[in-house]
Design goal:
Immunoglobulin-like; Pectate Lyase C-like; 15-stranded parallel barrel; five-stranded antiparallel sheet; 4% helix
Amino acid sequence: MIKALLLLGFAGTLLFSCQKHSDLGGTNRLFFSADTLSFDTVFTTTGSITQQVKLINPNSEGVNISSINLIGGSSSPFVINIDGSPGPNASGLFIGANDSMYIFINVSIPKGPAPNPFIVNDSIRISYNGIEQFILLSAWGQNAHFLKNAEITSDTVWANDLPIVIYGGLHVDSNATLTIQAGTHIYLHADAPVFVDGSLNLLGESPDSLRVYFTGDRLDYPYSGYPGSWPGIYFNKSSRDNILTYASFQNGNHTLVTEGLPTDGNPKLTLNQCIINNSLGEGILSIQSSIVAVNCLLSNCGQNIVIGQGGNYQFDYCTVASYSTRLLSHQLPVLTVSNTATDGNQIFTGDLTAVFTNCIFWGSQGVPDEAQIVKQGNSVFQILFDHSILKQQNYPANIDSNALLLNTDPEFIATGVPDDQFNFHLQAGSPALGLGVNTGILIDLDGNSRPSSQSDLGCYERQ
């Protein structure tokens, strides 16, 4: 009898050891790489990126999965792919010992009635061994106006009722003015430059919620922070009287490009309280043109300001600063000014007048001279740094200055440490405090008041 029991026990052991698909009881469970997936804002009628969850069997034996189900089924805005097979359901699956499988998830949200962002939810149920585990899904949806290869041929006003998403590009005809109201958000695809032959007016206001915003249409991490996400805005030779007020331009390539002198007596491009940040190329590229910029921040661009072939320029209370980030290295001066431009083997020169008043030009280590000045020929060449701070170890002899502080750190509040956090407001005790000269500008980039005398340098007045 004892021998029979021993043989039976031995046979059971053999049977157990050969059973590779045995179900696990007790508290044994699969491990998920994530039990919740969230999608950043997804524009209605467009798809999201694809995210994934890894189902891991850390046990020494295989696990039979009876079913994987997207609870919302085929009517869900979410779409799943289970280990290479399309959902919304799958059954009879197996994960071997110390093995894994993937579930891939994306979302496409239908257009809804709400102008404000709204949230959609669903979940994935994984059933095995009498156990049910869930992966929670959520996504923010946003209705929008969608434009593709858009042409503005007459005076047009864009309201702020919904964001505007542009594919393929936008062209403003030479006889048209495009006016964009306060609080409007413009999202541009990677193939969507803006060409302005007429005029562009941005009517932003000082609260952040009422600025006019331009950025790329990829709002998911990490793409939302990539420089060069959209091509830029190009003010062509016929363009005139462009006035951009309280506008923010993020993650462009050549963000603002202006070419040619104005056709009337007004500046070709006027920038009031504007922010240009994280451009892959130039924040401002100007070729023999005319710009007036007041209370503007140009930060962390490949090149913040590049001026070529002369022109007329007035920058007042502007902060022009760059520091290396995890995506963009500061290697070139924040300001390049030249009276020349090249086209193949040809060199063109033009008269140049540029005045920088109450400004800060600064950058991180590695660039000793944050202003590169190039002059050729005998054309008019007048540059003045007036009541400003400039990081410059080798100051050009032919450049005028008045009350200029050289190589004096303006002491911004935060310059990238930790985690690429930047704040270009001035610290208490900054040498830039109280050094401004009165130019009639009585507000700053935040819309806060400036004193008529002894104002602070740069775009922000310390409060």
